[in-house]
Amino acid sequence: MTAPTDHIDATAPAPSDGALFEGRTLISVDAMGGDEGPAAVVAGCSLSAKINPDIAFILHGDKALLGPMVDRDPHLAGRCDVRHAAGVVSMDDKPSHVVRTGKDTSMWATVESVRSGESAVAVSCGNTGALMAISTIRLRKLPGVNRPAIAVLYPSANKHGFNVMLDVGADIRADAEDLLRFALMGASYARNGMNLPKPRVGLLNVGTEEHKGRSELKEAYDLIRAQEIEVGFDFVGFVEGGDISGDRADVIVTDGFTGNVAIKTGEGTAKLVGLRLREAFKYSVLSKLASLLAYTSLRRLQRKIDPRRVNGGVFLGLNGTVVKSHGSADATGVSAAIKLAAQLAQNQFNDKLAARIAATLPVEETPE
Amino acid sequence: MTAPTDHIDATAPAPSDGALFEGRTLISVDAMGGDEGPAAVVAGCSLSAKINPDIAFILHGDKALLGPMVDRDPHLAGRCDVRHAAGVVSMDDKPSHVVRTGKDTSMWATVESVRSGESAVAVSCGNTGALMAISTIRLRKLPGVNRPAIAVLYPSANKHGFNVMLDVGADIRADAEDLLRFALMGASYARNGMNLPKPRVGLLNVGTEEHKGRSELKEAYDLIRAQEIEVGFDFVGFVEGGDISGDRADVIVTDGFTGNVAIKTGEGTAKLVGLRLREAFKYSVLSKLASLLAYTSLRRLQRKIDPRRVNGGVFLGLNGTVVKSHGSADATGVSAAIKLAAQLAQNQFNDKLAARIAATLPVEETPE
Predict the structure, then answer these.
(1) Average pLDDT, chain B
(2) Is the minimum CB–CB distance between B290 and chain A shorter than 8 Å?
(3) Are the Cβ atoms of B281 and A294 closer than 8 angstroms?
(4) What pLDDT score does A310 carry?
(5) CB A244 within 8 A of CB A164
(6) Within 10 A of A211 (CB to CB), how many other CB atoms are there?
(7) Mean pLDDT along residues B260-264
(8) Which region is the signal sequence (chains A, B) (predicted)?
């Protein structure tokens, strides 16, 4: 993978030299995933490079396409190594198919760079199921983790402006033990990704009373309660759908089916409110005038609740950190995902998370 | 229950007389449930009576409290019979407790009036779990229905402005057969409550591809597909969380756990967007001025997405229609729930629904 012929030109040094990359956090980026194409990914890398001098990139994909884009970009000069990958994972590819036949894809190479230890973290806008499948097979699960999870930041009323929610779709089910691991991983993510020393953790249910809900939730309730003091988070008990955007918990724990439906419902509802807002302002001459005057306010609102600003689902529970950027991410979105990836890498998040999970394992359980 | 001593005064005739109630749709209303107290419920009845000359009420609760309120109200004169009930179901009461000890409550009497055939439909703002438990025990399930469901109208981008969603919390689980019944009941509700001759029905999942999701969803997919032509709806297949507020389906079918989390997530997200919108407009002098000018537009928006305007979860699958109004409903909210109840009663919705479910039962299955 690091053969000299893979490098785009003489000015971009091989990472094995380490000359210009030295001291920088190396981020492995899949340039070919995403609905907006490689240009949006390269532009996102450029935005990030401009703001953050401590990062550098390995960009995987069609070298003939990517090379000229990177060469033209002043912020990426000497900080981006392009590696050729002939194959591309499409949004419709089945994960099982990609795992069998996708070794030549940019997505595979992106994950492989983390597995080999060359890059600190991976970022892709591609097919979520395929990315999770490749990541699980190549990076493997952390000792003590049965199901990995995808965590996202959801806009909320709390003072940081966001809550962590997991799982939002790595798997369609979770038992009580899985939910306990999600709580531990979510708390760790809130500590390292959001700088919350003692995050509040809530378990998603259809009511806040202890007697409510499915049996695995009641069991998970007791398991999480038992770890609360040892691990140093604040378990607020059961929370409801309304708390995902609320201020009762910083971390919302649920199975991947419920979490996936919830975030898509929330996104859809926010979109509908936006649609109705635009309609309301188009209604009359006076309301059109008002919308002109309100332009700055509405822009400010849009920035606050812009999903692109918190773009990035993080795969938790693997031997390595992978950030899944939204498929439709533009340069701003890709840049947000890269910022998150860099922060997690610089906090050595995954090492801390692994240690935390290991500490909660029974002594007699020997991790493979 | 219909003893003359139960009537508030000589001007309000006994419904057994039927003199003034004749030809009117009789709605049984629980006056004591809800956070806003009986005054909001009476005000809601009054609002409805003013608009709709074809309805009359039996109001259950504390007669000493309700009597004077009803007497003072010109719209309710001769159209509202107050029945005394000493007990009140609180929001914290466990359903199982209410079923054992709640025979003297206003909620029990409200449902009982539908069971006896006196009223056409019941409305309560009280404890959802208790109302469902009383309704299930007293009205009993329709032949062929294993789990009743609660259906709500959710604001959406389709041309009617709302989608039907069920179950949103009658039960925390549903198997493939239950999901099929939900599809039949939801389609029937969309026909009679929303006047859609051929509703589009979608099954909620984490993706739209046929191979995705839990096994009971794949099974339900085939069962619903098989009924589509016979029953006369349009099965659009799997839908995602974003489609709940979208225009792909008119009826969203899911289990009560997922549905409950989804609607609460949507409500919470809409609330957060509203909060951020108000903050954005308070930001500067110019934005405050803009908000004054935009006042009418914002009011119009609020009316369009106002949950009070579509207040009312309908219990489906029982021998009788029960409408659950939101616990925090004010007069406008109660009135919306009554309007829905009246429309369903006047369309003889429950008889049609029962016939529809019966028609899909195998011939060898003899309903009890």
Answers:
(1) 87
(2) yes
(3) yes
(4) 61
(5) no
(6) 9
(7) 93
(8) none
Say whether residue A277 is in contact with chain B using an 8 A CB cutoff. yes
Contact A244 B258 (CB under 8 A): no
Domain borders along chain B are 1-145+317-368, 147-312
Residue B159 forms contact with A (CB below 8 Å): no
Residues composing chain B: 368
Q: Per-residue pLDDT averaged across A291-299, rounded?
A: 70
Q: Tell me whether A275 touches chain B (CB under 8 Å).
A: yes
Q: Give the confidence band of B208 by pLDDT, cuts at 50, 70, 90.
A: confident
Query: How sure is the predictor about A20, in pLDDT bands with cuts at 50, 70 and 90?
Result: low
Which class is B147-312 in CATH?
A: alpha beta
Instruction: Decide if B3 touches A, using CB distance below 8 A.
Output: no
pLDDT band at residue B10 under the 50/70/90 scheme: very low
Q: How far is CA A193 from CA A352, B166, B325, in A?
A: 12, 37, 41
With contacts defined as CB-CB under 8 Å, which chain A residues touch B287?
Answer: 294, 296-297, 300
pLDDT higher than 50, residue B366: no
Which residues from chain B sit within 8 angstroms of residue A243, using beta carbons?
A: 268
Query: Does A319 lie at the interface with B, CB-CB under 8 angstroms?
Result: no
**Would an 8 Å CB–CB cutoff place A266 in contact with chain B?**
yes
Task: Verify whether the Cβ–Cβ distance A258 to B258 is below 8 Å.
Answer: yes
- What is the CATH topology of the domain spanning A146-316? Isopropylmalate Dehydrogenase (3.40.718)
Choose the closest CB to A261 out of B206, B268, B305. B206
Letter for the amino acid at A54?
D
Q: ipTM for the complex?
A: 0.85
Half-sphere exposure of A331 (CA within 13 A, CB side): 11
Burial (0-12, 13-18, 19+ Cβ within 10 Å), A159: exposed
Contact state of A301 with B286 under an 8 Å Cβ cutoff: no
CB contact under 8 A, A268 and B241: yes
Predicted confidence (pLDDT) at residue A34 exceeds the cutoff of 60: yes
Q: Which of A254, A266, A279 sits opposite B269 (nearest CB)?
A: A266
CA distances from A314 to A232, A237, A345 (A): 22, 24, 12
CB contact B91 to A (< 8 Å)? no
Write out the two tokens for B58: 């039996």
Q: Who wins on pLDDT, B7 or B264? A: B264
How far out from the chain centre does Cα A106 lie? 18
**pLDDT band for position B359 (50/70/90)?**
confident
**pLDDT above 60: residue A231:** yes
Partner A contacted by B298 (CB < 8 A): yes
Q: Which two tokens stand for residue A209?
A: 């009373």
Number of Cβ pairs < 8 A linking chain A and chain B: 198
**Do residues B148 and B116 lie in contact, with contact meaning Cβ atoms separated by under 8 Å?**
no
Architecture label for domain B1-145+317-368? 3-Layer(aba) Sandwich (3.40)
CA distances from B248 to A159, A236, B101, B199 (A): 36, 37, 45, 11
